[in-house]
């Protein structure tokens, strides 16, 4: 049974070829990317993880249009001696192509103090980290960002607050300064369109 507190639906175009990722309990998993166009014309390039069982009868080839449903999951990956939070859309179903769609619904708990800030252009932003329970006692830690009125509301929330949040999964490029210079990286997060506190 799927956990209903974490539900993602994406419609877009496969970019790049799928690559072998790992094997769990004898089942192979593969990774690829899905490009989903926003209303603005910008494109989010989102990572997918798909099991061989789900892939049966579906090539997921470069340029193929698909609709996928599943969950946004997280795991920690050691990179150069530092643990980094990695996000991926864990695909549970693949359907035919459809107009661009990017929807996510999460029920989770605020697990660190929200950070509220105002940009130099006077945009109000709040960063949240939600812990979303999964089956078998596991949890996914999902970075979220809220804007404007939602940001002001989210910025006052305390750790442990249970939230229902809806929005979209977005990719964002940034420059990371390292000892060796600058490195271009991609961050993934949920851009919140609506949220409410659950008692």
Question: Looking at this structure, what is the CATH superfamily of the largest domain?
Answer: Nucleic acid-binding proteins
The total strand number stands at 11
Q: Strand count, sense and closure of the main sheet?
A: 11 strands, mixed
For the record, give the distance between the C-alpha atoms at the N and C termini, rounded to a whole number: 24 Å
The coarse silhouette is globular
User: What is the domain tally?
Assistant: 2
Number of helical elements: 2
Mean pLDDT: 92
Query: Which stretches are poorly predicted, pLDDT < 50 over at least 5 residues?
Result: none
Please identify, by name, the CATH architecture of the largest domain. Answer: Beta Barrel
State which percent range the strand residues make up: over 45%
Radius of gyration based on Cα positions: 17 Å
Helix-and-strand structural type: mainly beta
H/E series, N to C?
EEEHEEEEEEHEE
The CATH class of the largest domain, by name, is Mainly Beta
Percent helix, as a range, is: under 10%
CATH topology of the largest domain: OB fold (Dihydrolipoamide Acetyltransferase, E2P)
């Amino acid at each position: 049974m799927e956990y209903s507190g974490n539900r993602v639906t994406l419609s877009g175009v496969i970019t790049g070829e799928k690559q072998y990722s790992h094997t769990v309990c004898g089942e192979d998993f593969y990774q690829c990317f899905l490009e989903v166009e926003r209303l603005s014309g910008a494109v989010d390039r989102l990572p997918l993880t798909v099991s061989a069982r789900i892939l049966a009868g579906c090539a997921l080839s470069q340029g193929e249009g698909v609709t996928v449903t599943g969950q946004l999951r997280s795991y920690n990956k050691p990179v150069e001696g530092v643990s980094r939070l990695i996000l991926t859309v864990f695909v549970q179903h693949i359907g035919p192509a459809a107009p661009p769609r990017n929807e996510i619904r999460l029920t989770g708990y605020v697990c660190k103090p929200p950070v509220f800030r105002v940009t130099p252009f006077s945009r109000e932003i709040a960063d949240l980290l939600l812990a979303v329970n999964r089956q078998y006692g596991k949890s996914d830690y999902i970075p979220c960002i809220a804007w404007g009125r939602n940001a002001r509301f989210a910025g006052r929330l305390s750790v442990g607050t249970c939230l229902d949040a809806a929005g979209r999964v977005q990719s964002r490029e940034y420059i990371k300064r390292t000892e060796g210079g600058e490195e271009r990286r991609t961050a993934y997060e949920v851009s919140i369109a609506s949220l409410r506190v659950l008692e």
